[in-house]
Specification:
Two copies of one chain form a homodimer. The first copy, chain A, contains nine helices and no strands. The first copy, chain A, is mainly α. Chain A has two domains: 56 residues, Arc Repressor Mutant, subunit A (Orthogonal Bundle), CATH 1.10.10; 134 residues, Tetracycline Repressor, domain 2 (Orthogonal Bundle). In chain A, helix 4 runs parallel beside helix 7. Chain B binds a DNA duplex through helix 1 and helix 3.
Chain lengths: 210, 210
DNA sequence: TAGGCAGCATACCGATGAGTATCTAGGATT
DNA sequence: AATCCTAGATACTCATCGGTATGCTGCCTA
């Protein structure tokens, strides 16, 4: 638990807030935003509704706080999983594959993500913020692709920005289909998708065509 | 209005049922499943809640009926838009592009689709049926791709089944991103995606490989 | 150590909405 | 024309839940 800090009142408060966020993420994903009750969220965290209203303005505020927190976390998780140098397909394939499975294809995350999408689609006020997060993720993906192109020394046959949105949509889309039936995302399919991407994009210099 | 049929009681009943389904699709997409009230759905259709319970077992049954109806409709819509022979990219590109926009990227449909996904993900009983629908769509897409390969006379570099799920996920994924910000799916991006697919899959016989 | 206050608990209110029970009217049947 | 019957309307119940107002308790300050 890190270097045992003396639990000041501020830290206690931060901890309850964190517990509430954690519980909220669970319950929202499991039951959906509307069906989730603040009582149950609080109880799951080991508190009561008072703790919620002491840390958040209301249900919507809590939901949006979960959104922020999860995006930050996801960002750093993927970043951490991918920032090591990987050159041959045999080298990066298993790493990327498990990163996708663990970070993007976690069912709880996918359901939360869809709840976010639907919520923000219906609440124009918060939609802009969500769009900003997505844009940041896309930008990061785009840069990653550009770097790979530079490393490979080949001219991009497609604009990195397009490839970024293409791959993100593909993985997110597969995550959604996975909710419908996990067998849609078998290992074989995932490897096919990754191979498809790498060959098309052209990272792998010695790729065998066909 | 077809050949003026004399409005038997059965036809009246079928019409109210249809109106209810239509209204339900609208309201469910706009407000979400949980937040939609049967009173408002009935009122939107020009009836009262009594009509709903006379035609459906309850809210869930209505929702699932909407699901069935929309999948049937979507299936035939896409099929109708694509079953004409198209060979050159300049020929099929605009047709496909507008078909995608109108059939798959209709915001109402996307939101309904996501509601379906989340609902069935939480209701294992109905998930199997939903998966069946999705599987049928995938199968249809797979056959379409296989036919194109046969017509082109080239051996598929990727399994048609994989390509089917890849393209479906990509378009659905883009539809989701479109909810977050329509500018993610500009004409330029859509054309890039279609070009990306066609070149990668290899339909276009004279495709320039990288 | 006495007071104050912040964090959370408890108790309550009001609105909402799914489901049900009952009623009614208008077409079908004889 | 008298009757029936069903689609749909109306009226009600009851549980749920977001929000608020208030109460309590333990840690900080003086």
């Amino acid at each position: 638990m890190a270097a045992f800090e003396p639990l000041t009142p501020e830290r206690r408060r931060a901890m309850t807030r964190q517990h509430l966020l954690e519980a909220a993420a669970m319950v929202f994903a499991r039951d959906g935003f509307q069906r989730s009750s603040l009582d149950e969220i609080a109880a799951t965290a080991g508190f009561t509704k008072g703790a919620v209203y002491s840390n958040f303005k209301g249900k919507d505020d809590l939901f949006l706080a979960v959104l922020e927190e999860r995006f930050e976390r996801g960002q750093s998780a993927i970043r951490g999983a991918l920032d090591t140098e990987m050159h041959t397909e045999a080298e990066w394939m298993p790493r990327i594959a498990s990163a996708i499975r663990e970070s993007m294809w976690d069912d709880n995350w996918t359901m939360l993500f869809l709840e976010f999408v639907l919520y923000t689609a219906r609440n124009p006020d918060s939609r802009a913020k969500f769009a900003t997060h997505v844009r940041r993720t896309l930008k990061w993906s785009e840069e990653l692709i550009s770097q790979e192109y530079e490393a490979a020394g080949t001219p991009p046959p497609f604009a990195p920005a397009d490839l970024a949105i293409i791959s993100m949509c593909m993985f997110d889309g597969l995550g959604v289909y996975r909710l419908v039936d996990p067998s849609f995302t078998s290992d074989r399919t995932l490897r096919a998708v990754l191979h498809f991407l790498s060959e098309t994009i052209g990272f792998d210099e010695g790729a065998t065509s066909s």
